[in-house]
UniProtKB/TrEMBL annotation:
One Pfam family it belongs to: 5-FTHF_cyc-lig
NCBIfam families associated with the record: MTHFS_bact
Protein name (database record): 5-formyltetrahydrofolate cyclo-ligase
EC number(s) on file: 6.3.3.2
GO terms under biological process: folic acid-containing compound biosynthetic process; tetrahydrofolate interconversion
Keyword vocabulary terms for this entry: ATP-binding, Ligase, Magnesium, Metal-binding, Nucleotide-binding
Binding residue positions for substrate: L55, E60
Native source species: Microbacterium aurum
PANTHER family from the UniProt entry: 5-FORMYLTETRAHYDROFOLATE CYCLO-LIGASE, ATPASE INHIBITOR/5-FORMYLTETRAHYDROFOLATE CYCLO-LIGASE
Length: 198
């Protein structure tokens, strides 16, 4: 990664992080309700029976209620667990399961840990992001976990990043290892941005 790209990513992440921290609790609650409605509709339109998602941090668009409700409806949901080697293990979501703090302070599930290969069987990937641009390029938070995961999948299903409405932007700085997403889910809409890879 060139210094210019790295600096641009750092600056944009800092701006987005600050904006997220300034949202009120009421705005976050409303966003979580909107995201759940959009994700429910997306899962139904894809006909997904097995998905991956993530447990949102307090400043992210909320996913906890969506995950719990999807499991109650019989959908198999895999949740990521960070590893020190930069890969993701997976745990099958359980609405009554415990949540702990992962390597970087993010909420992660407690349960039987499955290998990074477990995600190869899902029908839909729902991933976190700081921002996504109109071509489907995703800006993550800089640790590369989801870029590695997406880049290693032989048959990648549709991938949707969850962001706030203002985080669908014209352009994000990109590097060679950065992986595109199929679309974005915001509290008010679901937008297809790029054809998903097979």
């Amino acid at each position: 990664m060139t210094d210019g790209i790295a600096d641009a990513k750092r600056a944009l992440r800092a701006e987005l992080r600050e904006r997220r921290q300034q949202r009120s609790d009421a705005a976050r609650t409303a966003a979580a309700e909107g995201v759940k409605a959009q994700l429910d509709a997306l899962v139904a339109s894809v006909g997904a029976r097995s998905i991956s998602c993530f447990l949102s941090a307090p400043t992210e668009p909320g996913t906890h209620e969506f995950v719990a409700d999807a499991v109650r409806r019989g959908i198999r949901v895999l949740l990521p667990v960070t590893r020190a080697d930069g890969l993701l293990d997976w745990v099958v979501a359980d609405p009554d399961g415990d949540i702990t703090e992962g390597l970087f302070g993010m909420p992660e599930p407690v349960g039987e840990v499955l290998s990074p290969l477990a995600v190869n069987d899902v029908d839909l990937l729902i991933v976190p992001a700081a921002a996504v641009d109109g071509t489907g390029m995703r800006l993550g938070w800089g640790r590369g976990y989801f870029d590695k995961t997406l880049g290693s999948m032989e048959h990648c299903p549709p991938v949707y990043a969850v962001v706030f409405d203002s985080e669908l932007v014209d352009e994000v700085p990109r590097d060679l290892h950065d992986q595109p997403v199929t679309g974005v889910v915001t509290p008010t809409r679901t937008v297809v941005l790029a054809p998903h890879r097979r």
